């Protein structure tokens, strides 16, 4: 059995529709996967219904974008009984509106300052709009490589507008109050690794020990899980399917087996 607990769709910054992600799960022999779109629950119910038609099982969740001492820290939240907590619906709706306004303002600045083509109608089709979505829009509309388009949305861009930021402490608190199973996503991507154990003090249930980045050290994080009495998790962080890049794999790249998943399943009241 293959279980992948970290994946994205067009409901955040992925390029796959819900059905496309399910089809790739089938192709890659994934039995159970979690949908963890960034700060968004809008695709959870949809993908659950689609997955039933293909004989795949889905765990509903989301991935909170938080910050600790200037570092981006992502928190995977999995929902018990596969029920989306009301607080996560409220959070997703509120953040959606803030991000839509920011995206419109920032893209208009990119057009005015740099003279680039933009397609706001296409951009605003997404449920949650991140800088990754803006990057894709700029690259497509101007026939630019993604690396070239990225410079227009970076923090040092003249068009940059800061996002609404949530502290990791507040993010974990939100997740715990909502009754989620809380997992520290890709700790290998934290630039200052001294921060990892500081972050763990906020109270996680698990830590992602398997991740497709070459920066990942599975044994190191397994030892950390033992030290902090945490459950181990695995996630491919699928964003682009077969077009996987350096830090994101195709669904099924990094998985747990049934025995490894069982402790998390118990917390989720998820019957294997």
Any key phrases for this structure?
7 strands, globular, 272 residues, alpha/beta, single chain, 10 helices, TIM Barrel, seven-stranded mixed sheet, 14% strand
Overall description:
By secondary structure, the chain is an alpha/beta fold. The protein has one domain (3-91, 166-268): Metal-dependent hydrolases (TIM Barrel, Alpha-Beta Barrel). The protein is 39% helix and 14% strand. The chain contains 10 helices and 7 strands. It has helices spanning 18-27, 44-54, 86-114, 120-123, 131-142, 146-149, 168-177, 195-200, 218-227, 258-268; strands spanning 3-4, 32-35, 57-68, 71-78, 181-184, 206-210, 231-234. A 7-stranded mixed beta sheet has the order 1-2-3-4-5-6-7. Helix 1 (18-27) packs parallel to helix 2. The radius of gyration is 18 Å and the shape is globular.
How is the secondary structure organized here?
Blueprint (H helix, E strand, L loop, with lengths): L2 E2 L13 H10 L4 E4 L8 H11 L2 E12 L2 E8 L7 H29 L5 H4 L7 H12 L3 H4 L18 H10 L3 E4 L10 H6 L5 E5 L7 H10 L3 E4 L23 H11 L4
Parallel strand pairs: 1-2, 2-3, 5-6, 6-7
Antiparallel strand pairs: 3-4, 4-5
Protein name: Polymerase/histidinol phosphatase N-terminal domain-containing protein
Pfam family, one: PHP
GO molecular function, one term: 5'-3' DNA exonuclease activity
């Amino acid at each position: 059995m293959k279980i992948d607990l970290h994946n994205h769709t067009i409901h955040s910054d992925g390029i796959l529709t819900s059905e496309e992600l399910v089809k790739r799960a089938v192709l890659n022999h994934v039995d159970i996967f979690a949908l963890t779109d960034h700060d968004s629950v809008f695709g959870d119910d949809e993908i659950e219904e689609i997955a039933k038609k293909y004989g795949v099982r889905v765990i509903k969740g989301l991935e909170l974008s938080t910050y600790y001492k200037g570092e981006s820290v992502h928190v995977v939240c999995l929902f018990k009984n596969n029920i989306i907590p009301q607080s996560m619906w409220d959070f997703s709706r509120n953040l959606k509106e803030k991000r839509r306004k920011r995206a419109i303002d920032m893209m208009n600045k990119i057009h005015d300052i740099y003279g680039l083509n933009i397609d706001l109608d296409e951009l605003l089709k997404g449920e949650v709009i991140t800088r990754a979505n803006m990057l894709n829009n700029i690259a497509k509309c101007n026939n630019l490589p993604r690396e070239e388009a990225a410079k227009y949305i970076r923090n040092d861009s003249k068009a940059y507008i800061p996002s609404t930021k949530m502290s990791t402490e507040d993010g974990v608190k939100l997740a715990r109050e909502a009754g989620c199973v809380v997992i520290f996503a890709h700790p290998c991507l934290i630039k200052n690794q001294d921060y990892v154990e500081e972050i763990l003090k906020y109270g996680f249930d698990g830590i992602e020990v398997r991740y497709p980045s070459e920066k990942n050290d599975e044994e190191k994080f397994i030892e950390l899980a033992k030290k902090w009495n945490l459950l181990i998790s695995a996630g491919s962080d699928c964003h682009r399917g077969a077009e996987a890049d350096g830090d994101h794999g195709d669904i099924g790249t990094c998985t747990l087996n049934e025995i490894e998943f069982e402790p998390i399943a118990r917390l989720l009241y998820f019957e294997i």
